[in-house]
Write a structure and sequence with these properties.
Elements lengths: L1 H11 L17 H15 L4 H31 L1 H38 L5 H8 L2 H10 L6 H37 L3 H22 L6 H16 L3 H8 L6 H6 L2 H24 L13 H14 L9 H4 L1
Helix pairs in contact: 3-4, 4-9, 6-7, 7-8, 7-12, 7-13, 8-12, 9-12, 12-13
Subcellular location: Cell inner membrane
GO cellular component, one term: plasma membrane
Membrane topology: Multi-pass membrane protein
């Protein structure tokens, strides 16, 4: 107990006449923190009981369907061999088509995940094969120099090769956004607006992914939608302000537009924002040396398109204002 009090007094009080003592630098438990952070994804990646029970239910359902199909074929053969053969051929064809669908979807989803992994460690030679543009491959062979470093090769690859695909994707985004803005502006109901917006966004997503050499299946499209919406949800307020810009989201512009034109403009801008997110996720490398696409020119294109569809795009001035 006395030793504890002595240690406590040494830590608490300071004698100015005593010799200076070098401060002891405490080691920060960085290794423990990193170890704890490394264990978090492992703990979070454990399957939940709900998913386990869902998997068990699906397996039982498949077993029940298989047993029912076997009994159906056996009963059909008892009635007549022709009927049994027809049922066997039909079910066999159905199972084969289902297997082809599952394998194709798994392959397309795997390719999409590989593209996201390649964005972390880009290699121009591997990325060229994934883009599926023979003309760009020839152009890169003419540009590439053996004395370039890895960073220089990535820089030139983005500026000279990927930027060309970006221009094609931006033209698609501008086109689909203008179509969505025009369709929503002339749409009679809000339900039709939602259907049209979803339809145009779906087509735009497929076209943009195809520009970068990605073919989307059902599950890969669902995964891409999920990632796009996640990115939009986690975008900060400052990023939204920069993306949309105070120029065309200002109160002055919105008060000048008519109701239908304002809805069309909002639908077009939302479609464009979705398109740019798909563009970011489909690119072989993230934006680093190329400038991210903006919305300034897109706004002018949308307003010009709306002026052709909606004659009274701007609100009419009241009689008091005209006087």
């Amino acid at each position: 107990m006395s030793s504890y009090n002595n240690d406590k007094s040494k830590l608490t009080y300071f004698d100015p006449d005593s010799e200076a003592i070098e401060p002891v630098q405490l080691e920060e438990p960085a290794d423990e923190v990193q170890h704890t952070l490394a264990e978090l994804p492992t703990k979070q990646s454990k399957k939940r009981p709900f998913k386990r029970w869902l998997a068990v239910a699906l397996v039982l359902l498949l077993v029940a369907v298989g047993v029912e199909s076997f009994l159906l074929i056996a009963q059909s053969f008892q009635q007549h061999w022709v009927l049994g053969s027809l049922w066997t051929a039909a079910l066999g064809l159905l199972v084969a088509l289902l297997l082809v669908f599952v394998v194709r979807e798994a392959w397309l989803l795997r390719r999409l995940k590989q593209r996201w992994q390649q964005q972390q460690k880009p290699s121009p030679d591997r990325l060229l094969a994934g883009l599926k543009h023979p003309d760009l491959k020839v152009a890169w062979q003419q540009i590439d120099q053996y004395y370039w470093s890895d960073e220089e090769r990535i820089e030139r690859f983005e500026l000279d090769i990927v930027s060309r695909v970006d221009q094609q994707a931006q033209r698609l985004i501008s086109k689909r956004s203008a179509e969505a803005a025009a369709l929503v502006a002339v749409s009679p109901s809000s339900v039709a607006d939602m259907v049209l917006l979803l339809w145009r966004s779906q087509r735009m997503m497929t076209d943009i992914a195809r520009c970068y050499g990605i073919e989307l299946g059902y599950w890969s499209r669902v995964r891409l939608w999920r990632q796009v919406l996640t990115n939009l949800a986690y975008a900060g307020i400052s990023e939204l302000a920069v993306d949309f810009g105070a120029q065309w989201l200002s109160a002055e512009l919105m008060t000048k537009l008519s109701a239908r034109a304002g809805q069309g403009l909002g639908a077009g801008l939302l479609t464009a924002r979705l398109g740019y997110q798909v563009m970011n996720l489909s690119r072989p490398i993230p934006f680093k040396y190329c400038k991210r696409p903006g919305y300034g020119r897109l706004q002018k294109d949308l307003l010009r398109q709306l002026s052709q569809v909606v004659p009274s795009i701007y609100k009419r001035r009241s009689s008091t204002e005209s006087r």
